[in-house]
Batch of 2 targets.
Target 1
Amino acid sequence: MEEAKQKGTEKKKKVRKKKIIVPKPKKKLPSKKVGLIKTRETRTKKKLPQKGKRKRKRAKKAKILGPHEVVLFPLSTEKGVRLMEGENKLLFVVNRRANKQDVKKAIETIFKVKVASVNMLNTMKGQKRAYVKFSFETPAIDIATDLGMI
């Protein structure tokens, strides 16, 4: 009985058990069908512009440059002279908007020679240079003497 009294007189400690939260299994969503066939009505339906979006304008067509507008002037530097003698090339400063095909056509019309290839270089000063390689039939030195470079 003494044991029973001791048990009764002792204060019982309250033990709180922590609840373990078990995550619920996620529901599987139905798989989406890929590549649905669209009907003719949906393809021809005109889409309305979204709110806040503006209609884009087309870029303006570039102005066609003439041969004398493309080629501005020839350059005669040490590197240019070395290219002239060694690789049959001349160095020109050209318009910023000109591309390789424009430069090739312009030089062929101005000097009446055959151009083998054209390489372009944009300098840090804002110039565009064209390294023009001539065919073997026309040496670059002859063109340079006609221009008064040599």
Target 2
Amino acid sequence: MRLCLFDPVGLGQSAADFLGLAEYDAGLIGGKAWSAQADLAARLAELTAHIEQVIQKYLRTTFETIGEFNAAAGEIAEPYRYLVLFDFPTGFTEETMHGLQSILQNGPRCGVRTLLLTNKAVKPAHGVDPGQVRRSRLPVRRWREPRPRLSGLQAHDADRTGAGLGR
């Protein structure tokens, strides 16, 4: 498993519980929690490139999902990846929103899942419509008790398969 953390408001504080995982495996969290718009664009581009690689190199016409590939691959199994976005839609532009949409649509079969922690008090940037996530026809689950420690946030798991985070 690999985590990509974006925390534009807390500058890593919101992701503190995840950051401790680096003590067990430094590669698990991708170095740090990212916070700048440029970092978000770069991480989304990296995840998109990863999805392209999985589709073209591992899945092709042989496997429907990365889970099927991993079952056949044994020791060379590809790790699952989780994109964790705090205070969504803070830090998003129209361009990065399109990148997120692509990841939400193509990522789950490639082992890339997304967890959005939304902050309804944040006014989206011009051209950014957080409702696109809800209208994408991907399952959005409300966080079940206990609620996150951060007040004003709701967690949504945008995982198409129904597995993963957010339950």
